[in-house]
C-alpha cells in the first residue's frame, strides 16, 4: 500500500522539544500532517509550520478536550483513507506506519490497529513505570485503543468521530461505538510509539487517577446498561474501596473503636494483588489509586446533579 494513503493528526500544547521529535518521527512516513494546537504559549505553532505540518488552532473560548482537538484534525483529512492519531509528546517507532497500514489494508473489517506504546523513561519514577505497565495490553482483538492508533477514516465518519464533550475516556467510547457498528479493533504485536509522560510527583499521579475515576463513572453512565456493562465494575470498585469502605470504617469506629481494624483490609488487598501479580509497587498503587478514582467518580456525579460539565483534570 502507498504511504500517501496514510495521513496523521497530532494534538498538543506547549510540548516544546517533544513536538519537534514527534513531527520528525512522522517525516517521510505519512502524507499530510495536521497539527492541532490547543492554546500553546511556546513556539509550538512555529515548530509545526516549519516541519511542514498544517496547523489548526482551536478556539479556546470553547471548552477544550483532546477529543475535540482530534476531531478538528480529522475534519481536515476527509479525503484520507487511513489516519495515524498521535499525541504531541509521542514519537512513532520505525516501521510502525508501514506495518500497521499494510495490516489494516488487508482486513476490511477492522477500524483500528494499535501496537505497544512505551514510556520513554520508565526508570525515572515509579509513576512512569506504572504507566508503562498499564500500556502493555494483550495482543489480538481488543475492546479499545489509546490516544495513539492507526484508524480507518470511513469507519470514523460512520460513527461520527470522537465525542468532543468527553474530558477523558474518549478512545474507549469511540471504540465501543465502532464495535457496536460492526467494526473490529486489533492490537498488533509491534512497537508503535514512545511516550514522554514525565510523571515525577505524587500529585501528578493522583490527578491522573482521579481523571480515570471520572472517565469510569461517565463511561458507565453512558454505556453501562449495554451488554458489556462498560466500566461498571471499574466504577463499583473505585467507589467501594475508595469511598464506601472508609465511610463504614469511620462511622463504625464511632460506635466501637475496634472497627478501625477494618483498615487492615487495605494491606491485605495489597498482599493479595502482589502475590498474584508478583509486583508489589503495582499492587500498592492499585489499591491506593481507588481513593483518587473515587474522588473523580464522585466529582462526576456531583457535577451531573448540578447540571454542569467537569472541566479538564490535567496532570502534566
Describe the structure.
The protein is of the alpha/beta class. It has two domains: 197 residues, Alpha-Beta Complex (Spore Coat Polysaccharide Biosynthesis Protein SpsA, Chain A), CATH 3.90.550.10; 102 residues, no CATH class. 47% of the residues lie in helices and 17% in strands. Strands 1, 2, 3, 4, 5, 6, 7, 8 and 9 form a nine-stranded mixed sheet that branches. Strand 2, helix 2 and strand 3 form a beta-alpha-beta unit. Helix 8 crosses helix 9 and helix 10 packs across helix 11. 41% of the residues are buried. The model has no long low-confidence stretch (mean pLDDT 94).
Which features does this protein show?
316 residues, alpha/beta, Spore Coat Polysaccharide Biosynthesis Protein SpsA, Chain A, 2 domains, 12 helices, 17% strand, globular
CATH topology of the largest domain: Spore Coat Polysaccharide Biosynthesis Protein SpsA, Chain A
The CATH class of the largest domain = Alpha Beta
The major beta sheet can be summarized as: 9 strands, mixed
Total count of helical runs of at least 4 residues: 12
Report helical residue fraction: 40-55%
- Total individual domains: 2
Order of helices and strands: EHEHEHEEHEHEEHHEHHHHH
Radius of gyration: 21 Å
What global shape is seen?
globular
Amino acid at each position: 500500500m502507498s504511504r500517501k494513503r496514510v495521513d496523521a493528526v497530532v494534538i498538543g500544547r506547549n510540548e516544546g522539544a517533544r513536538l519537534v521529535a514527534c513531527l520528525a518521527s512522522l517525516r517521510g512516513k505519512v502524507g499530510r500532517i495536521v497539527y492541532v494546537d490547543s492554546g500553546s504559549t511556546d513556539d509550538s505553532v512555529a515548530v509545526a509550520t516549519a516541519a511542514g505540518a498544517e496547523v489548526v488552532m482551536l478556539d479556546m473560548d470553547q471548552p477544550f478536550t483532546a477529543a475535540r482537538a482530534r476531531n478538528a484534525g480529522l475534519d481536515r483529512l476527509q479525503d484520507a483513507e487511513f489516519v495515524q492519531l498521535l499525541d504531541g509528546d509521542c514519537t512513532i517507532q520505525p516501521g510502525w506506519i508501514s506495518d500497521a497500514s499494510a495490516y489494516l489494508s488487508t482486513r476490511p473489517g477492522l477500524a483500528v490497529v494499535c501496537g505497544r506504546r512505551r514510556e520513554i523513561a520508565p526508570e525515572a519514577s515509579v509513576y512512569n513505570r506504572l504507566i508503562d505497565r498499564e500500556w502493555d495490553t494483550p495482543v489480538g482483538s481488543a475492546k479499545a485503543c489509546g490516544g495513539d492508533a492507526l484508524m480507518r477514516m470511513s469507519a470514523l465518519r460512520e460513527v461520527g468521530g470522537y465525542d468532543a464533550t468527553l474530558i477523558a475516556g474518549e478512545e474507549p467510547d469511540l471504540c465501543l461505538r465502532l464495535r457496536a457498528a460492526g467494526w473490529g479493533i486489533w492490537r498488533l504485536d509491534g512497537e508503535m510509539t514512545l511516550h514522554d509522560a514525565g510523571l515525577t510527583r505524587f500529585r501528578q499521579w493522583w490527578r491522573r487517577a482521579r481523571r480515570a475515576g471520572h472517565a469510569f463513572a461517565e463511561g458507565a453512565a453512558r454505556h453501562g446498561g449495554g451488554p458489556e456493562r462498560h466500566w461498571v465494575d471499574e466504577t463499583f470498585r473505585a467507589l467501594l474501596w475508595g469511598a464506601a469502605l472508609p465511610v463504614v470504617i469511620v462511622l463504625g469506629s464511632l460506635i466501637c473503636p475496634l472497627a478501625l481494624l477494618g483498615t487492615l483490609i487495605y494491606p491485605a488487598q495489597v498482599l493479595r494483588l502482589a502475590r498474584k501479580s508478583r509486583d508489589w509497587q503495582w499492587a500498592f498503587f492499585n489499591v491506593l489509586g481507588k481513593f483518587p478514582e473515587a474522588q473523580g467518580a464522585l466529582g462526576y456525579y456531583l457535577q451531573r446533579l448540578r447540571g454542569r460539565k467537569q472541566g479538564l483534570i490535567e496532570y502534566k
